[in-house]
Structure formats: C-alpha cells, structure tokens
Design brief:
This protein is an alpha/beta fold. About 45% of the residues lie in helices and about 20% in strands. It has a seven-stranded parallel β-sheet, sandwiched between helices. It is globular and about 55 Å long. It is found in: Cytoplasm.
Length: about 240
Amino acid sequence: MTTLVMTGTGTDVGKTVATAAIAALALAQGQRVAVLKPAQTGVLPGEAGDLAEVVRLAGKDLTVRELRRYPDPLSPEAASRRSGLPAVGPGEIAAAASELDAAHDLTLVEGAGGLLVRFDSQGSTLADVAWSLGAPVVLVAQAGLGTLNTTALTAEVATRRGLNVVGVVIGSWPADPDLAALENLRDLPVAGGAPLLGVLPAGLGAADRETFAEQARRGLSPWFGGEFDPEAFTAAASAQN
C-alpha cells in the first residue's frame, strides 16, 4: 500500500488535474484508490470542490474524503480564522490518510497551495503531514518563466525536512511553449532534485473521461503506470519549435 503527497509550487499549477491523472492510471490497473483533501477552501457547502473534479476526470470507482471546507479562497489557516470553523491539523490528516491507506492500494493526499501553506495557528503544513506519514512527495510545477525558483525552493525545504521528493510533474504544458518552457524541461529536474515524471497538457481538465485517461497515460511516467519518456518528449517539443 502506497501513500503519495501531492503538492505544488503554488496555486493554479495543475495539482488537482495531476492528482486525477495519477488516480486514473491506478484505477485502470485495477488498484483501489483513495484521494484525501485535508482542506478545501473557496468553496461553499454543496458546491463542487477539487474532489468532485477528481471523480469527474478519473472515474467514480474512487474513495474520496474531505476533512474541512471553508468558504473563503484563502490559506486553510486564514479561511478557518475568518469563518470561525475549526482548523485541521497534521495529526488528524495523517490519521485519515493512514486509515485510507490500510484499505487501498494507493492513497493520494492533495494539499492546498504549496508545501508550507499553513493549516492552523500552530504553523502546521503539508510538509508536517508528509513527514509524519513518511510519504513520498510529488511536486507539481508550472512550465514557464519563474518556475525554477519556486521548484528549487520547495525541493530544498522538503529535503531539509527529511522528505523524499520522488519527481516533478508539469501540471499545464502550453500548446505553444516558449523558449523558457522548452529549456525548463531540462532544468526542472535539476531545480527539483528529482526526475521529470510527467507533462500534462494545458486544458486537460476540460477533457472527457476517455480523452483524459489517454492523455494521462501519455503524459505520466511508467512510475505511475504511464508511457511518458522525458527525453523523447523534450526532443519532440524542441523539434516542433
């Protein structure tokens, strides 16, 4: 049984799509898959959040669990403070993840924002959750200019805290990549101190389930059950531009 912690270099980097893509490949292999969202912010009760998107894209044969929901689009700590709703801490998150892990082949824990976004007033973060679980971290990064710094900062913090970043996934690859994006295919593994384990096309979240599954297979490494080859992808992308 395996638990992976999904984090990003910031918001809107494609973390939910990457989580759904990994889940879709695992489901296609017949695995029992769970996705845990410790804190959903910016979504009202009854509205569809990130987990609904994961189910829509990956399939209904998933176990999903959300521990807290806050209406304001803020960090979990700030959203909890403004709403008066209780915060969620690393102990509760780790306990939920461990419970899911015991009954599933793969459990994905999707954070909110980046690795050091605070869950509570004690300063607890997703890094604390990953450390308490002893779980590998998948780092979802942007493609273009500026991503090397945020990727390197996240990876350095993870390493200093004793975490294992197993790979980098580009969550939204542009249809017409610029020079920075093309060079980042080579530089992101250096910045992240881990291999490039996938590149997912921009707009993939709008695909139907069949197309999504096919793109997930093409865009993710055999490490996840896909076919992505970083050297072949880099060569092909460079040749087209």
